[in-house]
Amino acid sequence: MHLDLQSAHFGVSKLHDGLDLEMFAHQVESAPAIDDFRTIQDAWIVRDRIFIQFCMFGSLCESFSADEISANYSVLCTEQRKQQAQLAGFAAALDRFEEASLRHRCLTPKEQRAMAILRMHHAALSVVTDICLIKCSETIRSISTERFNNVVDQAKSITTSLKEIAPRSTPRRPTLLMETGTIAPLFFVIAKCDNPGVRQRALKVLKSWPHREGLWDSQLAATLARQMMFAEAR
């Protein structure tokens, strides 16, 4: 499941089979309620569910031209609002879980890092969801630059914290993770944000921690990101 979920980033997951506008047109208009999380694993499961919807909807929007988005705006906007509501509910559930956990002092350092990763994922998914129906670069820049910069800040903080806990005898962070961590959000920042400073910061953080997260390889992602930026600058 983890690898198939991550492969959705690349459009090769079975999640994309039969993907078209009709599947969203016939879905319910309201987002499902998000129950309180009892464990950090509950939060990851809900994150996965939201991420599946994000990948499917985001891929469809990416394939549409501005005219196609305009022609189908009612259906697309309804789905966008549903996903925005899910993300808002997810953030609220995270807040409640963290507040309850801190009150009972039951979050381990590892779980605290997991919370930080989940919040970074929420921030990245939220900004990309908010701009998915916009094709104007200037509009995207005006509403998303600071939010993309915030995602980079969170990724940098997570990367730094992992380096700080590495054993002194082996001052290295983990080199293989099965879950999505910082690579995909940083790559999304570089792909979606056109602010050179923010993109360079994201690339620097991406290169600072050589590792794999399932199908994602940080070094390969950094290479692709550099090539993307170089091609756009020509």
UniProtKB/TrEMBL annotation:
- What domain of life is recorded for the organism? Eukaryota
Q: What is this protein called?
A: DNA, SC001
Q: Which GO terms describe its molecular function?
A: DNA binding; metal ion binding
Tell me which UniProt keywords the record has, alphabetically: DNA-binding, Metal-binding, Nucleus, Transcription, Transcription regulation, Zinc
What species was this sequence derived from? Aspergillus oryzae (strain ATCC 42149 / RIB 40)
